[in-house]
Amino acid sequence: MPIQVLMPALSPTMTEGTLAKWHVKEGDEVSSGDVLAEIETDKATMEFEAVDEGTIAKILIAEGTEGVAVNEPIAILAEEGEDPAEAAKAKVDGGGAAKSEEPAKQEPAERETVAQEEAKPTPGAASDAKPAAGEGQKAPPAPRTEDGERVLASPLARRIAAAEGVDLTRVEGSGPHGRIVREDVEGAIATGGAKAAPAEKPSTGGAPAAGATPSPAPASPDDPIFQMLPSFEEVPNSGMRRTIAKRLTESARETPHFNLQVDVEIDTLMAMRKQLNERDGADYKISVNDFIVKATALALQRVPDCNVAYTEKAVLKFSRVDMAIAVAIDGGLITPIIKDCASKGLATISKEAKELAGRAREGKLKPEEYQGGTFSISNLGMFGIKSFNSIINPPQGGILSVGAGEQRPVVKDGALAIATVVTLSLAVDHRCIDGATGAAFMKELKTLIEDPIALML
Amino acid sequence: MADNTYDVIVVGGGPGGYVTAIRSAQLGFKTCVVEANHLGGICLNWGCIPTKALLRTAEVYNNMKHAADFGLKVEGVSFDLEKVVKRSRSVAGQLSKGVAHLLKKNKVDVVDGFGKLAGGKEGARKVAVEKDGKKVVDLTAKHVILATGARARQLPGLEVDGKLVWSYREAMVPEDMPKSLIVVGSGAIGIEFASFYHTMGAEVTVVEVMDRILPVEDPEISAFAKKSFEKQGLKILTKAQVKELKKGAKDVTAVVEMDGKTQEIKADKLISAVGIVGNVEDIGLEGAGVKVEKTHVVVDEYSRTGVPGIYAIGDLTGPPWLAHKAEHEGVICIEKIAGVADVHPLDTGRIPGCTYCHPQVASVGLTEQQAKDKGHKIKVGRFSFIGNGKAIALGEPEGLVKTIFDEKTGELLGAHMIGAEVTELIQGYSIAKTLETTEQELMHTVFPHPTLSEMMHEAVLDAYGKVIHM
Ligand SMILES: Cc1cc2nc3c(=O)[nH]c(=O)nc-3n(C[C@H](O)[C@H](O)[C@H](O)COP(=O)(O)OP(=O)(O)OC[C@H]3O[C@@H](n4cnc5c(N)ncnc54)[C@H](O)[C@@H]3O)c2cc1C
């Protein structure tokens, strides 16, 4: 029986994606492990590998198609011994209508079979195709309580959800049979996914964002205003560009930002850094930023009221610091996360940061590596920026902006002296972090950076 | 398809390799295992299994020596070392044959020989197999999983000579029972041999450089074990180091430094059990561009080496050096390759560790100190064997079960046990951790009476001030 190749869910939260590129064409033989296509989600492009062997009988979704729903059939695979031509005619059940046009050569009749079905995955579809294929597909989400059904969740997940006010019916489980486990709840808390996230206005129809408070739509390239401007090239918005636009617009609009600035002297820190990096057998090269990351994590641990997220029902105080570090990449930026940053040593932080940034630039981060995070750090010091303010990455409560380290005149004991100084700017969400709390954090941070030996303890 | 082309080649047929190969075949991959010496690897042939056979002999022997405590009259208890070793070898042999059968049943091809990545751009997924310096065959595959395991670490000055200085290999097949023995290193392997030889009558001294024995265990368990061993008559030196080894014709003298003082210890044999190094040599890692750190292959959470199509699992990738870690890593690796849904990386915090000395030691999760270091506010429960009916009936009143919970969430962070049969009990807590139970479910679980497992219940109750039998 022909096998339907379904749109994969490349992360627990993915509901749709762009079929960026096909690596195979109709008639190609594939075996398991071969790359079939590249799928673009909101932040990353990932390779989609074949699970089964066979011949590509038909490609159902053309490359470049956006908004392809998870579990929608994207191709038909003829198994060994099957006639690909016959297989191509197989009825496509399950899956939803492609939102974008099919290749023109597709026969209208077939187009309809695809289009007629509603956009919901047929639970049995995968296992219908071939018993073993069931293992290759993501299990459908467990039944939800909207109709009074049981939510599968581990006792620990329930306990944490109850304590943190997380609605389990809105959390997707990654455990066996879609069971919600601790990690899922913590992930939901970190991304604000499980509750009306502060930035996301509850909308009537459950449609994404826009619903309740109409936000001024961004200008269209057809707008007459552009006719008056010089000629331009249209660079289509990538998934990442759209995500940046959406989240930061929401954040700037919904989150009452306020900013605090402090200058820190880093001469002692730089001396210590030199000493550490020159140690015999040092297999690390710690940067000033690594120190600041570690100090920020420790300061957050000491002032836990700054490691928080605001939600409708409660302020969530996180049990550990997961530090998101802004990395500029081709076409945008991404924030890989150093998990449990406060309990990691400088060398570990340095290595992880390098490794994550490297893979971020290659577009090879996995969603769990850049989603979540309880606090962010952005550093533009390498461009010589003295100080700047960043927009908070919701649902996080704060972001630290790090400027360039430069020699500046300072007054010490009534006399003029020279010190290497960095200006740190903090932006916090005033709904959950008050001025004095933010200031206490900055004071702690300054102390840690200026007396960096404390970072070693 | 030519015969020498596979979907998956597994290099090394230890518990990591053969289990991965079977799972691979189950997933429909055409699979082959290359094994240089013995199916079942160290675990079946020179590790887990033969040591447990020896320790079982020691246990029965010890019980017989204490027969009078049970109202039995046994006289002239002694042993025949050759038969003790023979039993251990035949247990290993039987299981190794079993592995061959399982592989065959699952249609996994077994190639006898030493496998090596052929290297180069095209050669990365090519495995050249040699036997006795002669080429056997070249195999190619889409995925090559390296599972070549590890061997004993050699310490300068304590190099194994097979006569006076033993590694675990020689220690497993003694020809004569040494009258006295020095064991250097008090990890699981060192302590198991110390316990075996001591029970069989040798005078044993354990030398450990750290401040406690079984250094990966909770310090409270280490201290309990030390006291118990010393009561049995074992000598234990901690914070101690062998500075020099003088070899005589039939014995060795170790110069041991401890607390700034040196002492000389004379013994018939010395067992070096100071750790494990990965078998990273001669398997073509450099040519293929696979990264090696110290003596281990560097992999990500799904055992990928970074070189497409090349994976590494088990002892080869570093600690914990445990057969069940190797197996799980392998299964996760191959399921990830196959695209099985819901594959998650192995959570090392959920891997139990067992030491089969007398008394036995078993644990899973964080120690008390680790939990505190991670910032947990904790609740700790303890229950002693002396309060358990079954333990008393068995004549095993010595032991402790300790549980550590997160105060806020009720998560079972760690469990640590010492005493009779705890290696069989620990999986109860492992399941609890995997299912993410809180103290509530553990309290509501009905444990059968009378069993040692009731102590696991009591240790949970104790953490919450509800202990009954203490
Ligand atoms: C004395 C002792 C007691 C132990 N007790 C326990 C215990 O109680 N519980 C526990 O969990 N663990 C125990 N271990 C550890 C356990 O044995 C290992 O963790 C386990 O064997 C690792 O499995 P593996 O498959 O990674 O490697 P191994 O078991 O080492 O298998 C590797 C295999 O690969 C083969 N090989 C190597 N290179 C090549 C090549 N290039 N080509 C072909 N074949 C090759 C070897 O011949 C070997 O058979 C013990 C170890 C020792 C030494």
Can you walk me through this structure?
- The complex is a heterodimer of chains A (457) and B (470).
- Chain A has 457 residues and is an alpha+beta fold.
- Chain A has helices at residues 84-88, 108-116, 125-129, 133-136, 155-164, 182-191, 224-227, 239-254, 267-277, 288-302, 346-361, 367-370, 435-450; strands at 3-6, 16-22, 29-30, 35-40, 45-49, 54-59, 65-69, 73-78, 257-265, 308-310, 315-317, 323-325, 327-329, 332-334, 337-338, 375-379, 398-402, 406-412, 415-429.
- In chain A, the strands form five sheets. In chain A, strands 9, 12, 15, 16, 17, 18 and 19 form a seven-stranded mixed β-sheet that branches. A four-stranded antiparallel β-sheet of chain A has the order 1-8-6-3. In chain A, strands 5-4-2-7 form a four-stranded antiparallel β-sheet, with no helix packed on it.
- In chain A, strand 4 (35-40) and strand 5 (45-49) form a beta hairpin.
- In chain A, helix 5 runs parallel beside helix 6 (182-191) and helix 10 packs across helix 11 (346-361).
- Chain A is globular, with a radius of gyration of 25 Å.
- Residues 93-144 and 196-214 of chain A have low confidence and may be disordered.
- The longest helix of chain B has 25 residues, at 81-105.
- Chain B is α/β, with parallel strands linked by helices and 470 residues long.
- In chain B, strands 1, 2, 3, 4, 5, 6 and 19 form a seven-stranded mixed β-sheet that branches. A five-stranded parallel β-sheet of chain B has the order 8-15-9-10-11. Chain B has a five-stranded antiparallel β-sheet with strand order 20-21-24-23-22, sandwiched between helices.
- Chain B has three domains: 5-151 and 277-348, FAD/NAD(P)-binding domain; 165-274, FAD/NAD(P)-binding domain, CATH 3.50.50; 359-463, Enolase-like, domain 1 (2-Layer Sandwich).
- In chain B, helix 1 runs parallel beside helix 9, helix 3 runs antiparallel to helix 4 and helix 3 (48-65) runs parallel beside helix 6 (188-199).
- The model of chain B has no long low-confidence stretch (mean pLDDT 95).
- Chains A and B meet through helix 5 of A and helix 9 of B.
- Flavin-adenine dinucleotide is lined by residues 11-17, 34-38, 41-43, 47-48, 51, 114-115, 147-150, 168, 189, 279, 283, 314-316, 321-324, 326 of chain B.
